[in-house]
Design brief:
single chain; alpha/beta; Rossmann fold; two-stranded antiparallel ribbon; 22% strand; disordered N terminus
Length: 332
């Protein structure tokens, strides 16, 4: 099911976008003109945006999420640390009999949690992300949320990688450590140009599973407008710790009463017209929107993946706090 975004009203391009599945609007999105999409930016523009994002993300990580990230995302398990002499009170089940047999004293094995994580970000850069009816587009919101999580990973010395995708994988940056690598990823996201092709989550997840053999923390960030990818989600969640960050806009939930509007699918170019003065049309639109969101949530629950819903209208820090609290409760 696609989303719908407003076209021309009184000769002007209003903001807003919402899903629809009736009155001839299935697979339609509110019109996005090429002139409204982000154009090529100068290096200075990109660096300025990256600097602002870095400041905001660092402040949130240091002031709000200190310690929470580490407690809700864990390593692959326990790894061997050392062998030391037995001391009164040690668990006899930890005795290393091989080492003990070769010496005059008793030795035990010690283990510690393998803390280092690999964190992968799968980011949807399809044209529907260029829309936003508030102060920022969905894609701009994606960059801010991703940056905050990346700096959280950086603070914990984790590796961070990126897969940008639309109908197929657009760019792959293998996971690495370090601040310069994280800033490079953020620059690539800030400079991302929306692509007018249909989102294919399956291709992106299949690519992830081919290149990332070891278990990782995976953030799949998309508005999930496109075909279902239930099987790929199930496989990926079994191999990795998968969180679906579902990006939406308030106009995707309700069609405004603004008379006749032209609607254009941002990814296929299909154009339709609809009379928004009809209350029945608006009610059907709202029903289809809420139904689509409910189906997505149910699908993610069935495959066992966590969902972190983010809206361009609300404070995403509140959503992140709620998500971290849910994860902390699970691990108690």
């Amino acid at each position: 099911m696609r989303s719908v975004e407003p076209g021309l009203v009184d000769g002007r391009p209003p903001k807003g976008r919402q899903p629809h599945s009736s009155v001839g609007l299935t697979d339609a999105t509110l019109e996005l003109y090429i002139s409204q999409m982000p154009q090529d930016q100068t290096v200075a523009d990109i660096l300025k945006k990256v600097q602002r994002i870095q400041i905001v993300a660092n402040r949130a990580v240091n002031d709000i999420f200190a310690g929470q990230y580490k407690s809700v995302f864990r390593g692959r398990g326990m790894e061997f640390d050392e062998v030391r002499e037995y001391q009164p009170g040690d668990d006899i089940r930890s005795i290393d009999w091989n080492v003990t047999a070769r010496s005059d004293n008793c030795f035990i094995k010690r283990y510690c949690e393998e803390r280092e994580l690999t964190v992968m970000f799968l980011v949807d850069v399809s044209a529907s992300g260029a829309f936003g009816s508030t102060q920022q587009s969905k894609l701009e919101l994606v960059v801010e949320v991703a940056a905050l999580l990346m700096f959280s990973a950086l603070k914990n010395n984790d590796k961070v990688g990126l897969i940008k995708f639309c109908d197929d994988v657009i760019e792959y940056l293998p996971p690495r450590k370090g601040k310069s690598h994280v800033l490079h990823i953020i620059r690539q996201l800030v400079d991302a140009q929306p692509i007018a092709r249909e989102t294919n989550l399956t291709n992106a997840l299949d690519f992830l599973n081919r290149v990332q053999k070891r278990r990782s923390v995976v953030f799949l960030i998309s508005d999930f407008i496109g075909p279902s990818a239930r099987h790929a989600l199930a496989v990926s969640n079994k191999r990795h710790d998968l969180t679906a960050i579902t990006i939406s806009d308030p106009r995707e939930q309700a069609l405004p009463d603004v008379g006749f509007i032209s609607l254009m699918d941002a990814e296929t170019g299909e154009i339709v017209e609809v009379d928004t003065r009809q209350q029945a049309v608006r009610a059907m639109f709202e029903s289809a929107a809420s139904g689509g969101r409910a189906e997505l949530t149910q699908e993610l629950k069935k495959v066992g993946a966590d969902e972190l819903p983010i809206n361009t209208e609300g404070d995403y820090l509140v959503s992140l706090r709620r998500f971290f609290a849910m994860r902390e409760k699970r691990f108690r």
